[in-house]
Amino acid sequence: VSEQHEPVLADKPAVEVTQAMKGAPEPEAKNEQYGDDHGHAHIPSTCSHVDDAASPAVAREYAFTTTGMPSLDAFFKNSVPYLRGEITPKQFVENVGPSASTLKRLNIYPWIVLHDNRNSYNKMFVAARAAVERYKLGLWDRMMSDYQRRYPPSDWRIHRMGMHMYEFFKEYREAHADFPEYIEQLADCAYTRGLAGNAPPVDDPTQWIDRTIFVRQYTHSVPQFVIQINDDPDAPSPEPRPQLALIYRSFLTLRSRIYYPGVVALLALAKRTNTSPELRERFTQITDEQIEQGDAALVEHGVLPAKA
Amino acid sequence: MVAKAQGAGISLRREHYEAILTNQRRLDWIECNPENFMETGLWPRKVIEHASANYPTFAHGVATSVGGPDPFRDDYFRILKSLLDTMNCEYFSDHCCYASAGGVEFHDLLPMPFTDEAVRWIGKRAKEVEDRLERPFVLENISYYAHMPTTNMNESQFCTAVLDEYDGGMLLDVNNIYVNSINMKLDPYEILRGMPIHRVKHIHLAGHRVFEDMVLDDHGSAVIPPVWALYREAIKLAGRFVPTMIEWENNPPSWDRLLDEADSARRNAEEALAELAASKEAAAPGAPPREATSAAIGVTP
């Protein structure tokens, strides 16, 4: 998702010079979590089998590498569409060979895969899920079934299962005029928090932007909702209020944090990361001393490390 | 120095990151899912570095997909090896299953067909894992809920054949044997005795739950008495305190409760070994040791 956003630093900042000079941090939720863990199946408490999807399964083409063993090749060639609900357990057995288990029992695996993936989406996109359910009760599960079909997980990093969620919601909004715009932004914010928190160490300051520090311009109070919904399921929905945010991994806590920068803080960030030199030229009225104050504020909140 | 597993340990999860940093109670060793510490930022990495500096720490993967058809992912193995080197892991373990196929990552542990072809395929791939990681690769028997098509051998035969194929070590999950015995209507003791006990490097214990007409391996509760009994039998069969790991990852309990469970493992293992010694002493020369049975401990397969 992040790669698809234009760098905000290259644009004219929405916040004027007269506003907060240092910026402000977002208080973190008590139940902070921005991803799912690898591990064993998170088996849900109810079983409705795999026919509760929003749209019928459509067989896809998958790229298989042969094992050189005919029976095993047939197994894998059919196991993927079976696990993804594109063929039935009956077809799976007919195509591969007999099983000592009943078809009902064989249906457990497509169900586990569907529900386990959905459970991961639920954990990764708590705020987007809440907003979708407020928009239309019951829609979330159907959307996640569609998402899973359109974007099969292809990365061993579990948090990257959500990498297409922003564009998925954006496309849905473009087809449904009353679907709130902020939902795709909630997805972006949640996914970006995961990216920032999970990123490997980056030593070169010129590489921090879009790796461990992300600059986001939202149309609504999206970060606040992403934080609040963790502790309060009745948190008010995002308000239409332009919101500039830094989503970053704190140099102090090593965890993902959000900071609302003023222009001075943005200039300090641009200076340290050697990003968008034209930004400095557009704000000549801001002194170097003020930028140093902005830098100090970013250091105080762990956005930047203290200067050597 | 290479870390050696011994005694009773726990599987480390996010909920206990803070606790492991300040732990004062007895804890013999730690296991972690390496995927939760690979490219997952500095905080988890700092936690695992601290843990491995203070306890023998082992990595138990969920994403190797040793049985799968897709080529191994170079980036996964590069990062994994770096982590294993940092942790000084003696060996690396994962599940005897597949987790990806046709370019799709299922993030689940999926059973193989128990066939000769699968045995040869996993054996070949397991050797490649060992070459890439430059350390032994240990395979765990998984829980499964259905026989995959073309299966023509039982679980014990399959696990034995796979491990013989590449001469590998086994991670014996006693709870998985129990879960499979209920779901497949088999005797858990027969499954256990069919396993290559001499290859077992360590043991997993976990909770599960009943769901409709099945038992699900959800790692979400305490170990139940029939699984403890099966565990004691496994220790007797091994004739030694095999390093044992408590997995309680879903709905994880408090740190103290988790360590209580590890204490229970230690106690059960010591009792089993005492019983074994006593039975050997009492037995007439040449008499076989009395075997536990499902009926004797109240398990109905």
Notable characteristics:
heterodimer, A: 308 residues, 4-stranded antiparallel β-sheet, 12 helices, 8% strand, B: two-stranded antiparallel ribbon, 18% strand, disordered C terminus
Can you describe what's shown?
The complex is a heterodimer of chains A (308) and B (301). With 308 residues, chain A is α+β, with helices and mostly antiparallel strands. Helix content of chain A is 42%, strand content 8%. Chain A has helices at 70-83, 89-96, 103-106, 108-124, 126-135, 139-150, 165-175, 182-198, 222-228, 263-273, 277-282, 288-300, and strands at 24-25, 213-220, 240-249, 256-260. A 4-stranded antiparallel sheet of chain A has the order 1-4-3-2, covered by helices on one side. The longest helix of chain A has 17 residues, at 108-124. The model of chain A is unreliable at 1-22 and 42-56 (pLDDT under 50). Chain B is built from 9 helices and 12 strands. The longest helix of chain B has 28 residues, at 255-282. Mean pLDDT of chain B is 91; it is low at 296-301. Chain B has an 8-stranded parallel beta barrel, surrounded by 5 helices. In chain B, helix 2 links the parallel strand 2 (29-32) and strand 3. Chain B is of the alpha/beta class and 301 residues long. Chain B has helices spanning 17-22, 42-54, 74-87, 116-133, 155-166, 174-183, 188-194, 225-238, 255-282; strands spanning 8-11, 29-32, 57-60, 92-95, 98-101, 104-110, 137-140, 169-173, 200-206, 209-211, 214-216, 244-247. The interface between A and B is large, with 62 and 55 residues.
